[in-house]
Protein: Methionine aminopeptidase
Organism: Noviherbaspirillum humi
Amino acid sequence: MANISIKTEEDIKGMRIAGRLAAEVLDYIEPFVKPGVTTGELDRLCHEYMVKVQDSIPAPLNYCPPGYTPFPKAICTSVNDVVCHGIPGDKVLKNGDVVNIDITIIKNGYHGDTSRMFFVGEPSILAKRLSEITYECMWLGIAKIKPGAHLGDIGYVIQQHAEKAGYSVVREFCGHGIGKVFHEEPQVLHYGRPGTLDKLAAGMIFTVEPMINAGRREIREMGDGWTIKTKDRSLSAQWEHTVLVTETGFEVLTVSPKMPPPPAFIQQTAATPAAAA
Ligand code: MF3
Ligand code: CO
Ligand code: CO
């Protein structure tokens, strides 16, 4: 079993601020995600907003886990068949593209990590459905979070929902503990069996960030050392929140005024952002 840290009250206060700032970058960038914009321009705008408006630090910039080269940009932009870790650059977004924008900021030493899907112009029926199912997967997983529940409970509901829709769950990447460290224990798998893996306790903070493919689950890494695509070139979607385990359930930390509401079937409690906002 993993060694999962329990955050202090002070940590939790810091993580609420970091989470909100990360989500607010997504609110800020939304109107710029239009046909004709480059992913590099989206990166430039987000980077400037973090540094100049928020006085926050983009965590991806020069991030260099063992075996990797330093990530060269401030955000990740993953378009169409890119699963995750897309590097912003000259790519021009066109009508019908779907892009995941993944923001991680550092404020007062604490990390906030969140991503959303954006449609460029009009999405295809498939892209829309894949994004919706993936969003539901994330929320079904989050809704399982409470003291005494197991990490496997989260993975199970995500996998069930994705596969029932005819989609597949990427296995090589997962959610993660987060705090003063970007990626820490535990690993939060997006597949699994109920009642397995670590038991949750109040004060844990981790992300839920399912990557769901319209086709097969296999992936391949591009020559840049970061970009991950689906092997069969099928579309991939991802949504991400950073979540605190509370005494009674969960609190989503990556909340902001323009965040999409939880799906209607998610029980509205004090822990869900619609009530917290
Ligand atoms: N934000 C990603 C996550 O959710 C990690 C990106 S690492 C980077 O864990 F270096 F590519 F930015
Ligand atoms: Co993450
Ligand atoms: Co992220």
Q: What stands out?
A: The CA atoms of residues 199 and 229 lie 32 Å apart. The pocket of MF3 (ligand 1) is lined by residues 60, 63, 71, 76, 85, 102, 104, 113, 207, 209, 226, 240 (CB under 6 Å). The chain has one domain: 9-267.
